């Protein structure tokens, strides 16, 4: 029973039928979902979704796109993690592809999120796009200040960057992109990620995997990504599910299966 380690249940496309989306995920065998926030105004929404459930969790963070609009402080992030359903910090990171926020502001916000992760012991959920060098530099430098855990979500970076993240002890999460015809290099790298460092996600409502490509993505579709990865890695679907679910709870230690 796979875990969708990254979805946006409060986003347009899902929020209009949120109860149905969650029900369909459970019917598909998805055992848990992590509802991700991208700005502080969403924190209450994702926490509300998670409250009263045993299989939905929440994160608190500010996406790099929002770095110009939100000068988020570490203390505010730490305070927000005290809610029992909050198990991760992010998503945060660097996005030099869209460059929607000043790059130095992105870097400073990223560092604050990592500092909050270090203080709380919760993992940081990292978005990186066209920013491998700076992402690596910051994550390495921050490790020098003290240990913290992290996952590179919706991995699309180079294999060299991925291997470096693995060398640093971090996790990698694979989305439905891996099933696309133009993602052969990603699929090849995904097949070599160590079994104990691999997660799966949808990033719903975006990036629906084949055979659902073109539709609004839902957490239920994580089963297609998991099936593709199992075939690519030459293992049983059940073994892939077991491994990625175990990894989710090993990384997000505050969550309970």
UniProtKB/TrEMBL annotation:
The keyword Hydrolase is annotated on this UniProt entry: yes
Keyword Cell inner membrane listed: no
Organism: Sphingosinicella xenopeptidilytica
InterPro entries in the record: Metal_Hydrolase, TatD-like, TatD/YcfH-like
Pfam families attached to this UniProt entry: TatD_DNase
Gene Ontology MF annotations: hydrolase activity
Superkingdom, natural source: Bacteria
The protein, known as: TatD family hydrolase
Keywords (A to Z) from UniProt: Hydrolase, Metal-binding
Chain coiled-coil ranges: none
EC number(s) on file: 3.1.-.-
């Amino acid at each position: 029973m796979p875990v969708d380690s990254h979805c946006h249940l409060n986003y347009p496309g899902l929020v209009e039928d949120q109860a149905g989306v969650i029900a369909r995920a459970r019917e598909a065998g998805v055992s848990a979902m992590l509802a991700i926030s991208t700005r502080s105004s969403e924190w209450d929404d994702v926490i509300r979704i998670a409250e009263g459930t045993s299989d939905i969790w929440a994160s608190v963070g500010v996406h790099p796109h929002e770095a110009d609009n939100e000068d988020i402080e570490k203390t505010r992030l730490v305070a927000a993690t005290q809610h029992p359903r909050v198990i991760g910090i992010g998503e945060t990171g660097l996005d030099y592809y869209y460059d929607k926020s000043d790059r130095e502001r992105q870097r400073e916000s990223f560092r604050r999120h990592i500092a909050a992760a270090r203080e709380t012991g919760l993992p940081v959920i990292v978005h990186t796009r066209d920013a491998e060098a700076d992402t690596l530099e910051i994550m390495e430098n921050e490790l020098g200040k003290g240990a913290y855990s992290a996952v590179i979500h919706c991995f699309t970076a180079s294999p060299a960057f991925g291997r470096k993240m693995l060398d640093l002890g971090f996790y990698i999460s694979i989305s439905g992109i891996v099933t696309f015809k133009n993602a052969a290099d990603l699929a090849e790298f995904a097949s070599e990620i160590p079994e104990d460092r691999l997660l799966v996600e949808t990033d719903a409502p975006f990036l629906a995997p084949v055979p659902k490509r073109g539709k609004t993505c839902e957490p239920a579709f994580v089963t297609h990504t998991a099936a593709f990865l199992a075939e690519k890695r030459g293992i049983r679907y059940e073994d892939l599910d077991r491994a990625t679910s175990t990894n989710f709870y090993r990384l997000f230690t505050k969550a309970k299966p």
